[in-house]
Design goal:
single chain; mainly beta; Thioredoxin domain-containing protein; 304 residues; signal
């Protein structure tokens, strides 16, 4: 019986080496954790910076980053606001000039043992790189979150860098009684191969209601979805058979016009006396930086 002990020890030693080798091999195949991101911000902190010239917005939809220049004649400081976990806030890791009117900003999620599942603002104040000299400067912003053994999770945005030194611009008021993006529900679905109209359209989509004083004229305009063409003035008696409509581009303050081409619907109330004779609409379109364009279109009667 005593002679079996060396064999048992050898077997136990071999098993230990096998277990250690397996453990070592398992550890070696684990991907390395990414290094903690290094901030390039001159100052940063939780929440909204005190004395900010831009108010803290009450978001009701998707959360997007915010950026603004410093107050004063020299635009040499930019403040960014990112949104994420309060215990693992994003870190500003890169800021570059792409053109005189465009910046690129990269944020990486901060490292921590555990991240709270909340959504809180975090400010980043950084010296502006030289070269962004245009009156309006856009920023391509990336929020990056490294994933262990996988590609980074990335959210990309394009935002306007707000200039608090500019005088506020009046946003034109719409003359419509109703408006919404997209096409009217009562409009027949266009054929898949149909070409998209490149100008405004006008429709009678509903009959005259009993005891009504006016009739609804539906107009559809096309342009940037963030800066739609809206009716700002209506002349129901431009001519015996013509309704005059002035269109203007509506651009929200501290925003930019996206380079898409989308429909926008506005509903106008036309007095019955004018609606009874009207067969066409003369659109006069005013867009900043462009000459007035006048287009006359027939009113399409789909009311039956």
């Amino acid at each position: 019986m005593l002679e079996a002990r060396p064999a048992r020890r050898a077997a136990a030693t071999l098993a230990a080496f096998v277990a250690l080798a397996a453990l070592t091999a398992g550890c070696a195949t684990q991907p390395a954790l990414p290094p903690a991101p290094q901030s390039i911000a001159d100052a940063e902190g939780a929440g909204w910076p005190p004395g900010a010239p831009v108010p803290d917005p009450a978001f009701e939809g998707p959360i997007e980053p915010i950026a603004w220049w410093n107050e004063g004649p020299a635009r040499n400081v930019i403040t960014f606001i990112s949104y994420g976990s309060s215990s693992c806030p994003f870190v500003l890791t890169a800021l570059e000039v792409l053109a005189d009117d465009r910046l690129s900003a990269t944020f990486q999620k901060g490292a921590a043992d555990a991240c709270t599942d909340d959504l809180a603002p975090h400010f980043h104040i950084v010296s502006a790189p030289e070269g962004a000299t245009a009156d309006e400067v856009l920023a391509d912003v990336e929020w990056r979150e490294p994933r262990l053994g996988d590609e980074d999770w990335v959210q990309a945005f394009t935002i306007m860098v707000i200039d608090p030194n500019l005088q506020p611009v009046d946003v034109p008021a719409s003359a419509a009684v109703d408006e919404y993006p997209g096409l009217p529900a009562l409009l027949p679905e266009p054929a898949p191969d149909a070409e998209q109209p490149d100008g405004p359209q006008a429709f009678w989509l509903s009959p005259v209601l009993e005891l009504a004083d006016d009739r609804e004229l539906t107009i559809v305009t096309y342009g940037s979805s963030s800066c739609p063409l809206i009716p700002t003035a209506v002349d129901a008696g431009l001519a015996s058979d013509t309704i005059g409509v002035t269109l203007q581009e509506r651009k929200a303050p501290n925003s930019f016009c996206t380079a898409d081409f989308a429909p926008f619907t506005s509903v106008l109330a036309i007095p019955l006396t004018a609606a009874a004779e009207a067969t066409q609409v003369e659109f006069s379109t005013l867009v900043d930086g462009a000459e007035r364009q006048v287009t006359t279109v027939d009113i399409v009667d789909l009311a039956g």
